[in-house]
Amino acid sequence: MNRFGWLCVAPAVACFGIFMAYPIISSLYYVTRRWKGMTNTFIGVGNFVRMGQDKVFQQALANNFIFMFIQIPVMIFLALLLAVLLHQGISRLRGPVRLAIFLPAVTSLVVVSILFRVLLQSNGMLNNTLIAGHLVKDPIGWLSDPLVAKVTIMLAMTWRWTGYNMVFFLVGLQSISPEIYEATEVDGASKVRQFFVITVPLLMPVILFSAVTSTSGTMQLFDEPNILTSQGGPYNATMTVALYIYRQAFFTNNDFGYATAMSYIIVLASGAFAVIQMRLLGERKAK
Description:
This protein is mainly alpha-helical. 74% of the residues lie in helices and 3% in strands. α3 runs antiparallel to α10 (204-219), α4 (94-102) packs across α7 and α12 (241-251) runs antiparallel to α13.
């Protein structure tokens, strides 16, 4: 046995055990209990039964799915389109443009959310600009109208994460040989046809990676609805499962068992969607 080798990896193994393995194992205990402060009682699968009767949880889960099915495809398409334009169409100022698009991804989530909240208030800069330009008569309830608030959250997410995914697509585009595009140009293929016939199929592994990571991130969405819409308002229209977990565990009931059960739902849903995406996009890659 190489004792020196084990000694070198011991700190990493200890950190994994403390911060990863122990929480996972202890969650099996928490999920079977109903907590009230520091006291708890055994309820078996009662927390999962409770989720089937909890209208707020069901709405939060539905909101997660809405954000996922609408925002992620739009974001990935925009990221891919911007990557193609920067890779093929823009030669001057390419570096500063890339930086400007990627900059939101390295900005603090709290800063981004506060920025959007200031801009989108009833008397904020955006409403004042629209009214001054006679484009609207009354202020738009960007954060107070249930439907518009959902759109606002999706716009904030798209603005933040489009540049992040664009970087992956740019790396993927650099691995595609220019000779492939030259051959299709000789055959008379247009830029649009090249995009759908060459670029998209060859970038399918990168698209799959972006889709899986974006799905996982959306299922854990917390900062934007928490800061932008004051903890999931209005009327829980932007409530997400992660935000509801926080409220149940630390803000409202201190029910760690119920919060743990909902965390299991996030993990299972993220895993299920990852498998589906790998099957669907993997088959397209194979073709």
